[in-house]
């Protein structure tokens, strides 16, 4: 009776053992020499697998760095400290690069943006957009339902008073929020950019003014006041030319609708959240 | 023509043709559909998958036949058939994986997750179980397994070829990807029905 259990167990166990030994032998025989630096670089990376570097994940990026296909500061998440660590492993100095940061190009909620309808569906931006382009009167506006907040792996963007707000200390510029936003409100810009136009509405100034007090009305005041030819109204909305912008802040002071933001004077997001 | 009445080399050819065309593992028996759809995006990977499956099927048919006849049957442990065969197949797939990783990293990475999934490819287990239940002797079992694997390779390469061409075509948006592949596979299965009765099993 007991043999009915022991014999099959022994047979299967024995077969397993034989195959196991064969595989162990095969794994010795077919061993692949792997560059141990790949493992070290991988250790230094944040491990978020966000794909902001342009590779399939942290593993793929580590491999590319060791092969020399990616630069040591290619990880936009880890920024300078990680670049330094990887540089030490690889024995190269990280090149000077600029960090990226997300920029929400809308201040509709601050400007008392008007609603065109009452939305009571599923509480996310994608669903709201799918229903007649959202509940707000401005088709460019941030709907403030937080698709970006959900998508952000770094807890760096939050909806504060119905407006997506970037925590610039935490933001790594991976661009996941920009992809998650069904309205395309979020831009990824250099974190060194001093100012930005927080409106994308290309409609006429009169139409903008009718629905939102913080919209760009394309009055061209910023263009006229700028001494460096660094801001222009194109297609009905003001756009900063970051190659020329020196960050004097004249456009910010002169904008009649306060549609231009000075990133150096942004309020503390944490305080706003509290 | 009938396999039963044939002898010698004719019999081998008939067994092979029967397994490849008349009783195609993918398009007639519908076993192993997972890699059929998963790895049929490009002809090279499909062919690589076919070769890997051929290797695993042939060797596992050999080993499982020996395991069945020399170990399980004498001890009256026929009920351990499935689990013992899975053990053999899993070990072989592991081996193929190591071998490919060493000899062809490109093929290894393009096969991706579908390579270890050969373990659970029901076509492999299916052919080994059919070999035993049909009472084939060792030679026929291996020939049948090779034929089945060649049928697998033929079907997956054909589908990959069609899918490569279809990439360029103007497929309606909602049908792109797996939908149109499934429809294509269905049409191919209908086409393979034309071989029914060519050879009697």
Oligomeric state of this protein: heterodimer
Shape summary of chain B: globular
Helix content of chain B: over 70%
| Strand residue percentage of chain A | 5-15%
**Largest interface between protein chains, with number of residues from each side:** A-B, 15 and 17 residues
Order of helices and strands of chain B: HHHHHHHH
Report the total helices of chain A.
11
The structure class of chain B reads mainly alpha
Main pleated-sheet profile of chain B: none
Radius of gyration of chain A: 27 Å
| End-to-end Cα distance of chain B | 9 Å
Q: Whole-number average pLDDT of chain A?
A: 84
- By CATH, the architecture of the largest domain in chain A is named 2-Layer Sandwich
Average pLDDT taken over every residue of chain B: 88
What brief labels describe this structure?
heterodimer; A: 274 residues; alpha+beta; 3-methyladenine DNA Glycosylase II, Chain A, domain 3; Alpha-Beta Plaits; two-stranded antiparallel sheet; elongated; disordered C terminus; B: 201 residues; mainly alpha; 8 helices
Please explain how this structure is put together.
The complex is a heterodimer of chains A (274) and B (201). By secondary structure, chain A is of the alpha+beta class. Chain A has two domains: 36-90, Orthogonal Bundle (3-methyladenine DNA Glycosylase II, Chain A, domain 3), CATH 1.10.15.40; 100-273, Alpha-Beta Plaits, CATH 3.30.70.20. Chain A contains eleven helices and eight strands. Chain A has a two-stranded antiparallel sheet. Chain A has a two-stranded antiparallel ribbon with strand order 2-3. In chain A, strands 5-8 form a two-stranded antiparallel ribbon. In chain A, a hairpin with a 2-residue loop joins strand 6 (231-234) and strand 7 (237-240). Chain B has 201 residues and is an all-alpha fold. In chain B, helix 6 runs antiparallel to helix 7 (138-168). The mean pLDDT of chain B is 88. Classes of the chains: A alpha+beta (274), B mainly alpha (201). The A-B interface holds A 7-8, 11-12, 15-16, 19-20, 22-23, 26-27, 30-32 and B 67, 71-72, 75, 77, 80, 83-84, 87-88, 91, 94-95, 98-99, 101-102.
């Amino acid at each position: 009776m007991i043999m009915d259990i022991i014999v099959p167990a022994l047979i299967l166990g024995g077969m397993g053992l034989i195959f196991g030994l064969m595989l162990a032998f095969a794994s010795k025989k077919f061993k692949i020499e792997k560059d141990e630096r790949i493992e070290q670089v991988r250790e230094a990376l944040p491990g978020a697998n966000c794909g902001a570097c342009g590779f399939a994940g942290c593993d793929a990026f580590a491999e590319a760095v060791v092969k020399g296909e990616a630069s040591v500061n290619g990880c936009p998440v880890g920024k300078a400290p990680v670049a330094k660590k990887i540089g030490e492993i690889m024995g190269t100095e990280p090149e000077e690069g600029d960090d990226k940061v997300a920029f929400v190009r809308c201040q509709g909620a601050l400007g008392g943006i008007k609603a065109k309808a009452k939305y009571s569906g599923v509480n996310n931006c994608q669903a709201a957009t799918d229903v007649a382009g959202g509940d707000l009167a401005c088709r460019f506006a941030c709907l403030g339902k937080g698709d970006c907040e959900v998508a952000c792996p770094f807890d760096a963007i939050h909806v504060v008073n119905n407006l997506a707000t970037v925590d610039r200390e935490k933001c790594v510029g991976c661009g996941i929020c920009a992809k998650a936003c069904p309205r395309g409100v979020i831009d990824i810009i250099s974190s060194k950019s001093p100012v930005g136009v927080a409106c994308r509405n290309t409609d006429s100034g009169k139409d903008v003014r009718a629905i939102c007090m913080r919209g760009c009305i394309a009055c061209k005041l910023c263009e006229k006041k700028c001494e460096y030819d660094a801001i222009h109204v194109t297609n009905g909305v003001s756009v900063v030319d970051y190659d020329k912008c020196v960050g004097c802040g004249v456009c910010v002071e002169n904008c009649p609708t306060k549609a231009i933001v000075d990133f150096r004077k942004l309020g503390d997001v944490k305080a706003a959240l509290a | 023509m009938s396999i039963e009445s044939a002898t010698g080399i004719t019999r081998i050819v008939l067994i092979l043709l029967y397994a490849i065309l008349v009783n195609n593992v993918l398009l007639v028996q519908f076993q192993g559909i997972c890699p059929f759809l998963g790895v049929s995006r490009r002809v090279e990977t499909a062919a690589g998958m076919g070769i890997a499956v051929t290797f695993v099927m042939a060797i596992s048919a050999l080993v499982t036949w020996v395991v069945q006849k020399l170990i399980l049957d004498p001890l009256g442990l026929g009920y351990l058939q499935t689990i013992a065969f899975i053990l053999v197949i899993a070990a072989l797939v592991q081996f193929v994986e190591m071998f490919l990783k060493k000899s062809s990293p490109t093929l290894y990475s393009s096969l991706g997750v579908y390579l270890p999934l050969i373990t659970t490819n029901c076509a492999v287990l299916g052919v080994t179980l059919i070999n035993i239940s049909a009472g084939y002797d060792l030679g026929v079992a291996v020939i049948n397994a090779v034929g089945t694997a060649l049928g697998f390779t033929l079907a997956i390469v054909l589908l990959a070829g069609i899918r490569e061409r279809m990439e360029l075509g103007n497929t309606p948006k909602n049908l792109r990807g797996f939908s149109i592949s499934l429809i294509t596979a269905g049409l191919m299965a209908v086409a393979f029905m034309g071989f029914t009765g060519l050879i009697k099993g």
